Amino acid sequence: MDLSELVIEDVEGGSFRVHRSVMTSSEIFTLEQERIFNRSWLYVGHASEVPRPGDFCRRMVAGRPLFMIHGRDGKVRIFINSCLHRGALVCRQDSGNAGSFVCFYHGWSYDDCGRLVGVPDPSGYVEDFGKTGRALIEPPHVDSYRGMYFVNFGSNASSLADFLGEARELIDLTMDSVEILGGWEIIKGTAKYNIRANWKLLLENSADNYHFHTTHKTFADYNANLRRQAGLDRPRINNIDDSRGLVFRHGHVAMLTRAEGRTIANPSPLWSREAIAATIKLRDELAERYGEARGHSMADHSRFLIVFPNLAFHDTQSGFKLRQWWPLAPDMMEVSQWELVPRRESESLARYRLEGSLTFQGPGGFGTPDDIEALESCQIGFRAHELAWSDVSRGMRREARSDDELTARGFWRQWHAMIQGRAGAERVTDLPVARPPAPAQRAS
Amino acid sequence: MRPAAKTGAEDSRATSATPDVQGPPATQENLLLRLAVEHFLFEEAAHLDNWRLDEWLALFTEDARYVVPATDLPNGDPRRDLMLIDDDARRLRGRVARLKSRYAHREYPSSRTRRLITNIRLTRVEAHEIAVEASFVVYRSRAEAIAPYVGLYRYTLVRDDNSGFRIRHRRAELELERLSDHGAVSIIL
């Protein structure tokens, strides 16, 4: 297999092709573990999941069992969840509060800072065996940004801040927007589901505006119906003119859309007068605190950011969700989705946030099931090797619109560089070659 | 329409807090009532397995609630926790309209389902309202996969004027760690 031929970009010819073996090959699956997941910063959890000393939560990250714990010394740590002795899991609940962890196999015990503090019958070991600074192992690199904890299993990782790069601005907008409401916290309950498809298909899907009106017609119709009943026009959801795609260094990509129905802070005309007034007030406060341009950008834009390689950071009209997915096999991925809410929120806004949150995204929503169907449908299509290439060229020959495939190309360039063992793509965006004149993009 | 939320959430919390609540005594009257409830649930299941969704929707009260908690939080409270589904009557109508459309791609063509409903218990019997628990397995087969949804139903039924029942609250708590082969909850559970 010639790795350099898996993604072929022809700028002049306006073609961008991805070889479908990358979705089905077990060799590629193994290479991805080694060259992408073992070398990238990977999201683990959010500080609000372990607010008090002793609070912990478990995660599987790149196939490794980990747990995150808020130690009594105030520090949040992430440990590899495996006893130093023979390897059994020392943390055996998904979440909770504990002062110590006793391995159930032979009884070795650890405190909330990971230190080995007890070994049954220590006379069988050399003197001071349990008192020589032994502790649970931490991943080689652990860092956090705005309350989000990441790990990196690689040997020479750059800093998390450098890795996030320009994507930090979008993260900051969302994080700053809720400061006056006490900050974000992850609520209890996780949407956990599998998709019988290659993990990269969900990446392509998560910042794609092109599929919206076909895949999600029933959702668009539901909204249009609600608005019709209220005497309003069809909603302007994911409107092409009001949105744009962005590509960043290190493979992060994003779609921004001007959206109604954001409780922070751009109201829907369907809401109660009280809720609309409260939202406009919040929007004004953001403009006052952060300046008009930044404050209004926080309020008005839904941000569909994907942090390479597998975290969707979606602050949208469907609420603020973090979604992460792991490949289990070339044709199977495991998805988890968490919801973040403002710590202080009025009852009327909570009502509309819940409505937005429940209607579209998630395995019981009106949108996600059809995305899952689309991805699984593609995966079945890939069985026919005669059709070897997928086309990701939309918008290459014009000033890219939000429903073009600029964002998917941004991801694929990074993926293609890393799968060949390089640190990153030399060029993240489409080449600014001579293009036919395109209608000026509307500033959003 | 929205105030109905309170009823549902409070009901569910009351029953969640006391999972092993002793039901009413096995008097002849209560046993007959259980048979009537069983009959109602079996007819409801037949509507769903046969995709008679309008008939199914007609079983609900106007203040109804249909709730599916997250798999890792079966006793979740819709007012503060993440739910997979928390429909009031309006969204439930939207859900049915969607499922009847040929554009609900996950269910077009429709999946085949078969519901097994058992261990039906009356947990509270009042003059106008009855709380019911029942175990379920809903098999869904489609696109080369069969996935069983296993769990517990909690119903609040109200007696209607024709000695039948209407559904005020219907909660399907899944005994699954995750939606693995299921992918989504694209059918009515």
List the main descriptive attributes of the protein structure presented here:
heterodimer; A: 444 residues; alpha+beta; 8-stranded antiparallel β-sheet; 4-stranded antiparallel β-sheet; 11 helices; 21 strands; B: 189 residues; Nuclear Transport Factor 2, Chain: A; 6-stranded mixed β-sheet; 4 helices; 6 strands; disordered N terminus
Describe this protein's structure:
By secondary structure, chain A is α+β, with helices and mostly antiparallel strands. Chain A has helices spanning 26-37, 160-164, 167-177, 199-206, 212-215, 217-229, 273-290, 292-300, 347-359, 368-381, 406-419, and strands spanning 7-10, 15-19, 42-46, 55-61, 64-70, 76-80, 95-97, 100-102, 109-111, 116-118, 141-145, 148-152, 184-186, 191-195, 243-247, 253-258, 301-307, 311-316, 319-329, 332-342, 389-391. The radius of gyration of chain A is 23 Å and the shape is globular. Chain B has a single domain (26-174), classed as Nuclear Transport Factor 2, Chain: A, CATH 3.10.450. In chain B, strand 5 (145-159) and strand 6 (165-174) form a beta hairpin. Chain B has helices spanning 4-17, 28-49, 53-57, 89-100, and strands at 60-69, 83-88, 112-125, 129-142, 145-159, 165-174. Chain B is of the alpha+beta class. The model of chain B is unreliable at 1-18 (pLDDT under 50). The longest helix of chain B has 22 residues, at 28-49. Chain B has a 6-stranded mixed beta sheet with strand order 2-1-6-5-4-3. The A-B interface holds A 94, 187-196, 215, 217-219, 221-222, 225, 334, 338-339, 351, 354, 358-359, 362-364, 366, 368-370, 372-374, 376, 380 and B 2, 68-73, 76, 78, 80-87, 91, 94-95, 97-98, 101, 103-107, 143, 145, 177-186.
Instruction: Describe the largest sheet of chain A.
Output: 8 strands, antiparallel
Which CATH first-tier class of chain B would you pick?
Alpha Beta
Rg from alpha-carbon coordinates of chain A: 23 Å
Oligomeric form: heterodimer
User: Can you name the CATH architecture of chain B?
Assistant: Roll
